[in-house]
Design a protein that fits this description.
The chain is α+β, with helices and mostly antiparallel strands. It has twelve helices and 26 strands. It is about 25% helix and about 30% strand. The protein starts with a strand and ends with a helix.
Length: about 550
């Protein structure tokens, strides 16, 4: 490592000697100890860094303000563990050294230095500068890095990640990562004062105040979000990655193609992924339709990518599969906010139109498979498209949104340990909110039975026994009743034991549990769907 005062140019007044260049045995070392061997004087007793040699360059020319620029190579930044935003040396009758590291500014003044021509005490200045840099080293490395803590929330333990890094222009960048909730990231406002850290996430009404330990390995403090909870963050080399063993590895045995196609409105272009079996014959094709909320093509939630798993499984079974980003989400254009279930149904119909345009697709064997809200959209698409070969409804509603919520909200509140009246408060708030939100207004009154009664193609409806979002008993019974009422005789409804709303093997069905389950989709659900499709489409 080399420390330079500028760019090796000479002073415009007269050539000067190097600031300080002792013999090899007198060079400064910054390591586990910073040694000032020039006068055999130890300056700083403890710096936790591997030994790094520090040498000087030459005095540069002054700028218009009679300041010396101070250049530092990237190795020094690495040594200190943070960017050096600015270091200047000013000569105005006395020496003024200013170092700005993050939000820390240190100034040292050498009264013995009068002006440039009498600048004879450079070794002393240099030693002072090393002391300043050394004192910054332990500070700079203190808060920067990654930390993990276990938050003892009511009825659940949430693993939180925290990353902290200084900004080149000053201040700190901080981010909470909810490792137990799919690595959801929340940028935070950070304030550092000595060993004290304060974090605020105003939109979520979250705050944390903590103190760094002497060894800089832990930050102990209080987490606040409505209630106050003790929380200790421990330093880690990197944040842990969730284990998702079902995600495909390596090169897939099928073709993967990124595609775009017109959506259900003039302003919407949908972007997605098409997976095609390596077959010369035309293949049956399946459109995957996601649940509520802005979803990407993998329907990603809690670091799980269920639509990727479905696409991989189904394509290996011989089906062309199209999955796409919701309008206004990821790479799809348009606006998500303000769109309703009926608008998303138009997008699903646009996806079917796109598949029919592909020469690889057997248009007589087209299937729509939807999860959650997508399980409402699948029947809507089938009701308006009499050419569909089948639909698959995964954890889909059979009753109105209001009826869903009257069962869902109490069940979720109970699972979270919230008081019973909390569910009614939520429902009241959502009903008021529906007056200004088109999607919610539609959701509350939309009755899936209206479309289900018009569906004449084969139907498979699966719900998990532990589904707290869409109760299996209530909704499967309603789906079956609507299909019967419409005269459909080719359907199968199944309640799958021990599966939650995501169709994972679960213990409680609570939403937060999904993030801590390594399984993305139960093999039972995967087999149920692929077997039923094989039997159903064999007759088409």
């Amino acid at each position: 490592m080399f420390l330079y005062f500028g760019n090796n140019s000479t002073c415009p007044i007269r050539p000067l000697r190097p600031i300080f260049n002792p013999p090899l045995d007198r060079r400064y070392l910054i390591g586990r100890q910073l040694l000032a061997t020039h006068r055999h004087q130890r300056l700083v007793p403890d710096i936790r860094d591997p030994p790094v040699q520090l040498r000087t360059g030459w005095i540069p020319r002054l700028d218009a303000l009679r300041r010396w620029p101070f250049g530092i190579q990237s190795q020094l930044t690495q040594l200190l563990g943070r960017p050096m935003a600015a270091i200047t040396i000013a000569l105005q009758n006395r020496l003024n050294i200013s170092l700005i590291v993050g939000r820390l500014r240190i100034k040292a003044k050498d009264q013995k230095c009068c002006d440039l021509h009498k600048y004879v005490n450079l070794p002393l200045m240099y030693r002072m500068l090393l002391v300043l840099i050394a004192s910054l080293a332990s500070f700079a490395q203190s808060f920067e890095g990654a930390f993990v803590g276990d938050l003892q929330a009511p009825n659940a333990v949430l693993q939180l990640g925290l990353t902290l890094k200084p900004n080149p222009s000053g201040g700190w960048s901080a981010e909470f990562i909810s490792l137990s909730q799919g690595r959801a990231k929340l940028p935070a406002t950070a304030t550092v004062e000595g060993k004290h850290l304060k974090l605020d996430i105003a939109p979520a009404r979250i705050s944390f105040e903590g103190t760094l330990s002497e060894d800089a390995q832990t930050i102990s403090g209080k987490f606040k979000q409505g209630i106050e909870i003790d929380l200790v963050f421990k330093r880690v080399a990197e944040l842990p990655r969730p284990i998702r063993p079902q995600e495909p590895q390596g090169t897939p045995p099928y073709t993967v193609e990124d595609v775009t196609f017109p959506g259900g409105a003039d302003t919407v272009t949908l972007a997605g992924t098409l997976t095609l079996p390596k077959s010369s014959a035309k293949s049956p094709a399946i459109v995957l339709v996601s649940g509520s909320g802005p979803q990407n093509r993998d329907s990603e939630l809690f670091a799980h990518k269920p639509f990727w798993i479905w696409a991989d499984t189904l394509t290996k079974a011989g089906y062309i599969v199209l999955r796409y980003d919701d309008r206004g989400t990821a790479k799809s254009t348009g606006t998500f906010k303000g769109a309703t279930t009926n608008d998303f149904a138009l997008d699903a119909q646009a996806a079917l139109k796109f598949l029919r345009s592909r020469p690889e697709v057997d248009s007589k064997r087209l299937v729509v498979m939807g999860h959650s809200e997508g399980g409402v959209i699948a029947p809507i698409a089938a009701a308006s498209d009499g050419q569909l070969a089948a639909i698959v409804v995964l954890a889909g509603p059979g009753v109105t949104g209001e009826a869903i919520l009257r069962k869902q909200l109490p069940d979720l509140a109970k699972a979270a340990g919230a008081p019973e009246q909390f569910a009614q408060m939520q429902l009241d708030a959502m009903q008021k909110q529906a007056k200004t939100e088109p999607w919610l207004a539609t959701f509350l009154v939309l009755d899936p039975a209206v479309a289900l009664k018009k569906v004449q193609c084969p139907v498979l409806a699966l719900n998990g026994e532990l589904d707290l979002n869409v109760n299996a008993d209530i909704n499967l019974a309603a789906i079956e009743a609507a299909l019967k009422a419409g005269g459909n005789k080719n359907y199968l409804t199944r309640k799958l034991p021990s599966l939650n709303h995501m169709l994972q093997t679960a213990k409680t069905g609570a939403p937060l549990e999904s993030a801590n389950i390594s399984e993305t989709i139960s093999p039972v659900a995967l087999t149920e769907v692929t077997s039923w499709l094989a039997r159903t489409l064999a007759t088409k």
